[in-house]
Write a structure and sequence with these properties.
It is found in: Cell envelope. This protein is α/β, with parallel strands linked by helices and 288 residues long. The chain is built from twelve helices and eleven strands. The strands form three sheets. A five-stranded mixed sheet has the order 9-6-5-10-11. The protein is globular, with a radius of gyration of 23 Å.
């Protein structure tokens, strides 16, 4: 083979190798995601490289690896608009948490709302996962991942069948409110205890809260109390678990088993291929 032929062959191999490398890059938009459930879904689908920045404040532990080598896009409530403008991603993924910044984000790039919609939690997760997968031509992969997730959920639900009632509350600055947690009551089909007479719900804007005292919780007499600690998730002083147990005991609820769930996972994330599985695992571990 002549030198010219060798050079030509080498160039051809280099071009083919380059094309192969390019073809391995998934199609679809580069994004900044302001929803951790959407983020963990993209990662589960093998699309982590399409995430160009993430909000690092309050980032759940299970997503901590994404913080390396990516700019900080602020937090879930207040996006860092300067970072968004500088990176100019193809798309920004948002939910209602970013409502105050929506117009400014729309001035920079395309904005996609990935909020979970409707009262059927499983269907809402399904729709969101498939919607994200559609952006990247990954519907088949998403379908397989969802099938795996729902099989896992069903296995865990069957294993918990017949469990005693479980209560879920949100803790915020020393106060508690009842939490209608769909992972617990829809996906795992666990029974919630009855709220005592005299406990009234309050409406703030479009949201309804049911405040509870430790005495109220004791009167509900759940076998397990699962706590989502909002305070800890947003950087405020966390729940004093020993004090809660003492207050429950003083009200006759000393037998209630108390578990504080991972704050960032439950308050700042959820509804994704990874987060739903992790949440189910935490509940199962708490109850077994």
């Amino acid at each position: 083979m002549t030198m010219k032929s060798l050079v030509t062959a080498a160039l051809g191999i280099a071009i083919l190798t380059g094309c192969a490398s390019l073809s391995q890059e998934p199609a679809g938009p580069d994004v900044i995601s302001f929803d951790h459930g959407a983020t963990d879904t993209l990662v589960a689908l093998g699309l982590g490289q399409k995430i160009v920045a993430i909000p690092k404040t309050g980032l759940p532990e299970y997503l901590s690896g994404l913080s390396v080598g990516r700019p900080d896009a602020g937090n879930l409530k207040t996006p860092d608009l300067a970072v968004v403008r500088e990176l100019a991603p193809d798309m920004v993924l948002v939910t209602g948490r970013q409502a105050e910044s929506l117009e400014e984000l729309q001035a920079v790039t395309q904005v996609q709302d990935v909020s979970l919609l409707g009262d059927d939690y499983r269907e809402a997760v399904q729709i969101r996962v498939l919607g994200l997968a559609t952006l990247y031509g990954q519907l088949d992969e998403a379908g397989e991942k969802l099938d795996q997730l729902w099989r896992f959920v069903e296995e865990q639900r069957d294993g918990l069948a017949g469990s005693d009632p479980v209560a879920v509350v949100t803790h915020n600055q020393g106060k508690f409110s009842l939490r209608d947690e769909p992972v617990v009551f829809q996906l795992l089909n666990l029974e919630a205890p009855r709220v005592p007479e005299g406990v009234e719900s309050v409406t703030r804007g479009t949201r309804v809260f049911t405040p509870l005292t430790p005495a109220d919780i004791a009167a509900m007499a759940p076998s397990h109390l699962l706590v989502v600690d909002r305070s800890a998730a947003i950087g405020d002083p966390p729940l004093d678990v020993d004090q809660l147990r003492g207050d429950l005991g003083a009200a006759g609820g000393g037998a209630i088993d108390v578990t504080v769930l991972s704050p960032e996972l439950w308050y700042l994330s959820g509804g994704g291929l990874q987060s739903v599985r992790l949440q189910v695992e935490e509940v199962v571990d708490a109850l077994r």
